[in-house]
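Meet today's protein:

…
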Amino acid sequence: MWIFAAAMSAVFAAITAILSKCGVKNIDSDSATAIRTSVVAVAAWAGLFILTCGTICMAVFT
C-alpha cells in the first residue's frame, strides 16, 4: 500500500512541477504559489477519498 502512496506522491509532484513551469508564466509569484498549493490540496483530498472509499467498499462487499 505504501508503494502506491509513494508512486501517487511522485505523480502529483511531477504534475505540480509541470504546471508551475508552463501554466503560470504571466502570474505573480504569490498567485502561482496559491495555485500550486490548491492543486496539491485537491490531489491530497482526492487520494484520501479514493483510499477511504476503497476501504469502505471492501468492508461492505466482503
